[in-house]
């Protein structure tokens, strides 16, 4: 992704960024008057269903009674709900971490709904005793949920809560942006010098205030965990008060061709880099080789593939008995795992089951199944390693040093001869040597001693598809034709998925409905459905059944081909366009002029480049020779990623395509 969106801030703020302390938040809890309801349309977004008036967070570090320090996070938020489409904002979830018996806890929640009734502000408070619910999500996370009462169109809600956490090595990120526009977003962090954090910033909005001041304070730490008298100590340390404010932050809404919206939300994240005195010094910024070495020794990851695993003989020997090469071995093992194991979780990094149990149950998470594939390949002396990555929907990863929480997926790399093959055995219709589109999300790492970086970028994928149509007049003067289509590899994969789910007959019906004309289909054939390393071929004959009028309007792009609408609808885009791949789509038509007709109007040909470097191209060529019409249409995008500054160019390019592809040939009856 663009370096503008993701950069490391070892933050040293210049004096020019210092702002007077008088620039304070515009609201205070409980201070709601009738005039606060007057605005029903906000200039920041006239179509907004709700506007966040203020969202303010404070994180402080204090000594605790466990011989350590705790982090206290307080959040205050006020939202004006303008219509019922934003009632969801009244339901809140607070995610809390846990580690064994230790769990983050909410010390207090205060929440109020305000409505204007007969010119007076009426308050309805949340019953925090009966209106807050707890849910255990998994071993690491619980969630506290509440919904503010008496929500109406025009309501103003505000709430605040404080979370106490003994996990000082983890600071939650602060998002300045979300699904609704924010008039004032502020985060304050009081960071003592003994906690060395680095800051990671994402997004495209600049800070209106970025201030820091250093002071000295005392920390009091007590140890009450022993059986004797508690021990109390105190020490002096410098604390830096950071303050970040962004005003008038636009909403960030999901658009077409977005990998993960969280990649582009303006936010600040924190990573503990080192622990300093009075704690024993420790550096947390590990090298990639250290991390992968630890993973290879981990019981929940690499140890499973490092063992002898002699028990695998029972499964691998029949597969590779007569294999003539390592490549043939790898193919057979891959298809065995792919065809016999069911994935239970497509977003999982560590393996909870033993490989023996995965084989026994024939089920496992993506990590468990692909670690099994790795172990089976290694067992047969194929050079294979796991690869860890983050899927497109999970967000991008940071390359310079490991942030393990960013990774949610494992695939397999096999080096055979001079070629590297990448595999994911969790997709039943995916061919050997291919990865799902979701894996093409940039930086990934091979889990071996070398810890090599790998880059699965959508720009490296180019989907080529072609459609050819041939139409003639039959002996009765009716238009008949044949269509042959070869979709790209991933379109072929999606087609296999669709046919597996709905059946061939349903797909044939879908194709028939895609024609603008009334047609009948015959000899419908799908080739290579059971050959996952090849493209699917779609072939059929068709008869056009429409009654012939004096004038026929005929779009040469049949069977739903072409662009009926612009995929880029928004007038403005605040973050990049991230397509799953580039593409090269070609369509040809050879047809006879309908019997008894002549051409009255023929669209004009055109060839247009999207930009000077020709990274996008649209070709529309049409000609007539006697009673024969030849047509060729081609749309090509050589890359999948476009910066926000290129959005207008991309949108106008597709506007032009949609307009041109809507043009029709006009036939009129001969006199």
- Largest sheet data: 8 strands, mixed
Low-confidence stretches: 1-22
State the helical fraction: 10-25%
Gross morphology is globular
Number of β-strand runs: 37
Using the 3D structure, state the CATH architecture of the domain at 462-669.
Sandwich
- From the alpha carbons, calculate the radius of gyration and give it in angstroms: 31 Å
CATH fold label of the domain at 462-669: Jelly Rolls
Return the CATH class of the domain at 462-669.
Mainly Beta
H/I helix tally: 9
Strand content: 35-45%
Average pLDDT: 92
Strands of the largest sheet, in order across it? 7-6-10-3-2-12-15-14
3D structure, described in words:
- This protein is mainly β and 671 residues long.
- Among the domains are: 288-456, C8orf32 fold; 462-669, Jelly Rolls (Sandwich), CATH 2.60.120.
- The protein contains nine helices and 37 strands.
- The chain has an eight-stranded mixed sheet, with no helix packed on it. Strands 27-28-26-25-31-35-34-33 form an eight-stranded mixed sheet.
- The longest helix is centred in the middle third of the chain and has 15 residues, at 326-340.
- The protein is globular, with a radius of gyration of 31 Å.
- 31% of the residues are buried.
Main attributes of the structure:
671 residues; mainly beta; C8orf32 fold; Jelly Rolls; 8-stranded mixed beta sheet
Task: Lay out the secondary structure.
Elements: E1 6-9, E2 50-63, E3 69-81, E4 91-99, E5 102-103, E6 105-117, E7 120-125, E8 132-136, E9 141-147, E10 156-165, E11 174-175, E12 182-192, E13 195-202, E14 209-223, E15 231-249, E16 267-275, E17 282-283, H1 288-297, H2 303-306, H3 313-320, H4 326-340, E18 342-343, H5 355-361, E19 363-364, H6 366-379, E20 383-389, E21 409-416, E22 419-423, E23 442-446, E24 453-456, E25 462-473, E26 479-486, H7 489-502, H8 504-514, E27 519-527, E28 537-544, E29 551-554, E30 577-578, E31 582-592, E32 597-601, E33 606-609, E34 616-625, E35 628-637, E36 641-642, H9 647-661, E37 665-669
Parallel strand pairs: 2-12, 18-19, 25-31
Antiparallel strand pairs: 1-13, 2-3, 3-10, 4-5, 4-9, 6-7, 6-10, 8-9, 11-16, 12-15, 13-16, 14-15, 16-17, 20-21, 20-23, 21-22, 23-24, 25-26, 26-28, 27-28, 29-37, 30-36, 31-35, 32-37, 33-34, 34-35
Helix pairs in contact: 4-6, 7-8
């Amino acid at each position: 992704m663009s370096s503008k969106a993701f950069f490391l801030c070892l933050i040293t703020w210049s004096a020019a960024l210092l702002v007077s302390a008088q620039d304070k938040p515009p609201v205070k809890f409980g201070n709601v008057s009738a005039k606060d309801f007057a605005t029903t349309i906000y200039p920041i977004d006239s179509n907004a269903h709700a506007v966040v008036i203020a969202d303010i967070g404070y994180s402080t570090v204090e000594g605790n009674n466990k011989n350590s320090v705790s982090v206290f996070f307080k959040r205050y938020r006020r939202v004006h709900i303008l219509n019922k489409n934003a009632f969801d904002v009244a339901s809140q979830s607070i995610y809390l971490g846990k580690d064994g018996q230790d769990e983050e806890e909410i010390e207090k929640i205060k929440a109020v709904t305000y409505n204007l009734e007969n010119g007076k502000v009426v308050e309805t408070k949340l019953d925090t005793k009966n209106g807050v619910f707890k849910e255990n999500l998994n071993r690491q996370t619980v969630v506290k949920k509440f919904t503010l009462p008496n929500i109406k169109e025009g309501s103003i809600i505000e709430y605040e809560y404080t979370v106490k956490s003994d996990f000082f090595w983890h600071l939650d990120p602060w998002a300045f942006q979300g699904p609704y526009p924010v008039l004032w977003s502020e985060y304050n962090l009081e960071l003592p010098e003994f906690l060395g954090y680095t800051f990671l910033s994402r997004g495209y909005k600049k800070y209106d205030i970025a201030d820091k001041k250093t002071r000295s304070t005392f920390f009091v730490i007590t140890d009450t965990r022993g059986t004797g008298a508690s021990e109390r100590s105190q020490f002096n340390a410098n604390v830096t008060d950071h303050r970040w404010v962004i005003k008038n932050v636009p909403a960030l809404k999901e658009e077409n061709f977005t990998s993960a919206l969280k990649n582009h939300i303006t936010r600040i994240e924190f990573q503990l880099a080192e622990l300093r005195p009075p704690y024993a010094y420790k550096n947390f910024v590990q090298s990639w080789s250290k991390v992968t070495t630890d993973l290879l020794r981990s019981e929940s990851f690499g140890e499973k593939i490092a063992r002898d695993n002699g028990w695998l003989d029972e499964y691998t020997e029949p597969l590779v008995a007569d294999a003539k090469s390592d490549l043939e071995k790898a193919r057979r093992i891959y298809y065995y795992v792919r065809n016999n194991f069911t994935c239970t979780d497509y977003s999982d990094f560590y393996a909870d089951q033993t490989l023996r149990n995965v084989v026994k149950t024939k089920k496992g998470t993506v990590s468990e199944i692909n670690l099994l594939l790795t172990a089976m390949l290694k067992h047969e002396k194929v050079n294979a390693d796991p690869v860890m990555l983050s899927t497109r929907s999970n967000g991008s990863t940071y390359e310079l040093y490991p942030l393990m929480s960013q990774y949610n997926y494992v695939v397999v790399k096999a080096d055979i001869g001079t070629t590297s093959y990448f595999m994911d055995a969790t997709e039943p219709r995916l061919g050997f040597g291919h990865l799902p589109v979701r894996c093409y999300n940039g930086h990934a790492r091979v889990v071996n001693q070398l810890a090599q970086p790998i880059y699965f970028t959508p720009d490296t994928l180019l989907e080529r598809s072609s459609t050819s149509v041939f139409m003639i007049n039959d002996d009765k003067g009716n238009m008949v034709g044949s269509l042959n289509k070869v979709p790209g590899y991933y379109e072929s994969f999606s087609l296999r998925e669709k046919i597996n789910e709905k059946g061939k007959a349903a797909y044939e019906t879908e194709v028939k409905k895609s024609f603008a004309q009334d047609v009948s289909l015959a000899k419908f054939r799908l080739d290579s459905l059971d050959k996952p390393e090849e493209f699917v071929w779609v072939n059929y004959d068709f008869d056009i059944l429409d009654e012939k009028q004096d004038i026929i309007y005929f779009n040469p792009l049949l069977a739903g081909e072409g662009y009926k609408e612009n995929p880029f609808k928004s007038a403005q885009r605040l973050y990049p366009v991230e397509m799953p791949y580039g593409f090269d789509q070609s369509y040809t038509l050879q047809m006879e002029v309908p019997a008894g007709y002549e051409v009255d109007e023929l669209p004009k040909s055109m060839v247009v480049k999207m930009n000077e470097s020709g990274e996008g191209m649209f070709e529309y060529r049409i000609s007539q020779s006697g009673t024969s019409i030849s047509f060729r249409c081609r749309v090509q995008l050589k890359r999948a990623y476009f910066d926000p500054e290129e959005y207008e160019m991309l949108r106008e390019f597709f506007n032009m395509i949609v307009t041109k592809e809507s043009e029709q040939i006009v036939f009129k009856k001969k006199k």
